[in-house]
Amino acid sequence: MRKKIFKNKAVFIDRDGCLIKEYGYISTLSKIQFFKNSIKALKLLKQNKYKIIVVTNQSGVAYGYFPESFVREAHRYIAQKLKKSGLKIDGFYYCPHHKNAKIEKYKKNCKCRKPNTGMIIKAQKKFNIDLKKSYTMGDKLTDVKLGHNAGMKGILVLTGFGRWQRTLINKEKIIPDYIAKDFLYAVKWIIKNNGGK
Fold it and tell me: Among the options 14, 139, 177, 182, which is catalytic?
């Protein structure tokens, strides 16, 4: 007998400026600091059965500000910190490319750099995610557009670059489905609008 496949719902979270504080190009572990409501927001997502996927553009690799190995080290560090609070990020996905890269092997117009959907598609296949029940969020309009490009709702948070990005909405013609004060407020809106568990 065939095992029934269940579709999972997920929230795709931007890293810098949404989950952790924005410091430009983060190149040392000491700069990795969670926003005060991040832990509470993550716990709420877990309680409501959401897969938690981090999707982040890391063009600092392409520009030579730090090696690709540091991005992986940073994600291990974040995972260890969250483990102490009984939390686990289901997946970390990053794009090290940029069309104007200083390092040749990273110089490309790739399918993974947000707002392109490469990272979303990879995660969808691995975690069997129903995108229609899923969301993206971040402090840039590219995070919102990423969601829309993948058939999801996109949320702009006002931490990090969020307040500045909000002023560009009309110019860029990228309309967030919701604008949230921070990560926690975004999660509360998701749960309210998606019926919780």
Answer: 14
Question: Is the preceding omega at residue 115 within 30 degrees of 0, hence cis?
Answer: yes
**Residue pointed to by tokens 């260890």:** 80
> 20: number of CA atoms within 13 Å, CB side?
21
- What are the φ/ψ torsions at residue 138 (nearest 5 degrees)? 180, 180
Q: What is the CB neighbour count within 10 angstroms for residue 1? A: 3
Domain covering 9-194, topology = Rossmann fold (3.40.50)
Pairwise CA distance, residues 164 & 140, whole Å: 9
Catalytic residue among 16, 139, 177, 182: 16
In this prediction, residue 4 has a pLDDT band, given cuts at 50, 70 and 90, of very low
139 is catalytic: no
Q: Report whether 61 contacts 78 (CB < 8 A).
A: no
Q: Residue ranges of the domains in the chain?
A: 9-194
Whether 182 is a known active-site residue: answer no
pLDDT in tens, 20-76: 999 989 999 999 999 999 999 999 999 999 999 999 999 999 999 999 999 999 999
